[in-house]
Amino acid sequence: MPGRHLARWTLSWFASALLFLIAALALAVLLAPAPGEWTGGRGLALVHLLAIGWLSQMMFGALTQFLPVLLAHPLLWPHLSPVALALTGAGTLLLALGFTGLEGWSPGFLLLPLAPVLLGAGFGLIAVMAAGSLVPARGWREGTGRPVILAFVALGFAFASGEGMAMTVAGLDGAFAIGLDALPFHIGLAVAGWLGLGTAGVSYRLFAMFLIAPDGGSRLRTVTAGAALVLLFLLAAGLLREIATGAAPSLLLAAAFCISLTAGLYLTDIIRLWRARRRSVPEVNMQMSRPALAFLAAAALMAPAAVLKGGHLAEATVFAALIGWLSGLTLTQMIKIISFLTWIQVFAARIGRGALPQVHELVDETASRRWLSLWFGAAALGTLALLAGQSVALRLSFALLLVAALGIVRQIWRIRRLALVPPAMRPDCLPPLFLPPARTEPLQ
Amino acid sequence: MTQTTDPIRELDVRPILASGQDPFGAIMDVVGSLPPGTSLRLIAPFQPTPLFSVMARQGYAAAPRQRGDGAWEVLFSPDTGSTTEQDLSPGSNREAMFWPDPAQSLDLTGLMPPEPMVRILATLEDMAPGEVLFALLEREPVFLFPELSAREHDWAGNLAADGAGYRLLIRRGGEK
């Protein structure tokens, strides 16, 4: 019975996220604003298609699959996953359309207040589902659970601040409206808090597994979690102070330094893991994780200067984090994760009963490495283009990112279709590309 | 070598080592004569790490500590004594403690998923119905459990007390 090992909707989350990525990059090739103008309508629409549609949906899909695996406790109400998927997808589209109000499309301002309703419902649903694993596993005492919990808290603040600013942009001055000066805190909470801590939390276990490295919690990891907690406090306190008094520059700068510190501690831990690995030649997903982590180092080093100078430097920092680090790492691990899940889905029932391919034989490593290299090269080009204020180079970067993303999506499609597996080993019937398999047993 | 009559037996292997002999046989003799529920306190001049997995296969969890005099003291306690039912992974067979001794043992630490799952299922295919397999893993094999159920094998597993490994007993089901 293929499919009983997988969270039913994980691959649907991934497919939706990849669709948002391709759509956002294609739109960016056509419409990307010039460096320095990313807080306009088009820029905000593109950033949110990437941050929520692509990265957050990917994170939700990964969490619904791996949180129960890593914490050994099932999700609460896993059958609500497609509802959360539809809510976050529709909410992201409405938000992007809403921001076009700033470009002169006035109906956008009517859509803008609706988007947070759908997004809030979707995020809330996922948080409840995740709590089903995190609470009984006492996730707050656990190396993987802690950063994921902090990430969800950050998501709550990022959502609330984003919702408040969306109200202000839409011209609705109510109790929930927040001034646009809160934007740096919103970005910090969303990128460093939600996406950053969530990614880091999941990465410890996955990296240890892929590198065959000892996975014991270390004192360094506890210190890193402490730094992450301080970071979250600074961002949340800064946001509240900003709302109350209209200015919180010292808290913002302290948060930026804390981002550098937390990232430094995390990277030290990962380097330690890398050196302790028992797998002498890591697979392509771990080899290509190194440039992604280099982008994290770069973005974390740039964060304090970005806060002080703003403008091009701030845009380049956010780009390096979103495209170089988070998107790069996600695409890199996606190759491995999808090949692993596909192998389990198709071949688990046949173990010990005949010849089977190995997991890595589902992946065209050469082609994957080529497309991932193009992605990281294009991410570097885009970061430099934003720093230098070069619009043409930025567009070129988005075009190259689009080509790379399409190449990686093609590799994922080939993995799902077992294109590299010898015909004799292929099953008669392949599982659906990204939809859940037909239900053959009660809910797990 | 000193032995006491406490519920915890004590074995000091330093004299054996000092005389140039291998203490493994003496340790196994004492382990073999331990009454059910009795723990073994082993004293050695170094941390006897290789012994931990041997003892895990015999059903004992290791708790090492270094003494003030530099020697190592390891308390090997029976798993059933240190394990409450709540510690067993959901889906575990509660009668596992009455199963026969394992006919096969696999140390699957240091293998990347899905290799532990492949080895366990392949080994079970060659075992007779009713026989028991013990496996030591790096983490809980969550993708394996549904496959074990589908093949009608019973299993019981729990995380080591220090969280550093996962111990799994599987009784071969009737399906072939």
Give a written overview of the molecule.
The complex is a heterodimer of chains A (444) and B (176). Chain A is an all-alpha fold and 444 residues long. In chain A, 71% of the residues lie in helices and 0% in strands. In chain A, helix 2 (41-71) runs parallel beside helix 5 and helix 2 (41-71) packs parallel to helix 7. The two termini of chain A are 13 Å apart. The model of chain A has no long low-confidence stretch (mean pLDDT 92). In chain B, strand 7 (154-159) and strand 8 (166-171) form a beta hairpin. Mean pLDDT of chain B is 82; it is low at 1-5 and 81-86. Chain B folds into two domains: 8-78, TusA-like domain (Translation Initiation Factor IF3, 2-Layer Sandwich); 96-171, TusA-like domain (Translation Initiation Factor IF3, 2-Layer Sandwich). Helix content of chain B is 26%, strand content 27%. The A-B interface holds A 1, 4-5, 68-69, 72, 209-210, 212, 215-217, 278-279, 340, 343-344, 348-349, 351-353, 356, 359, 444 and B 89, 110-114, 117-118, 121-125, 138-140, 142-143, 146-147, 150, 159, 163-164. Chain A: The chain crosses the membrane at residues 46-71, 83-102, 114-136, 148-171, 183-208, 220-240, 246-267, 288-307, 319-344, 371-388, 394-413.
The largest inter-chain interface, given as chain pair and residues per side, is: A-B, 25 and 24 residues
Indicate the mean pLDDT of chain B.
Answer: 82
- Which CATH architecture of the largest domain in chain B? 2-Layer Sandwich
SSE run of chain B:
EHHEHEEHEHEHEE
Find the count of extended strands of chain A (DSSP E, 2+ residues): 0
Overall spatial form of chain B: elongated
On the 0 to 100 scale, the average pLDDT of chain A is 92
Q: What name is given to the CATH topology of the largest domain in chain B?
A: Translation Initiation Factor IF3
Keywords (chain A): Membrane, Transmembrane, Transmembrane helix
Transmembrane segments (chain A): 46-71, 83-102, 114-136, 148-171, 183-208, 220-240, 246-267, 288-307, 319-344, 371-388, 394-413
Organism (chain A): Paracoccus marinaquae
Protein name (chain A): NnrS family protein
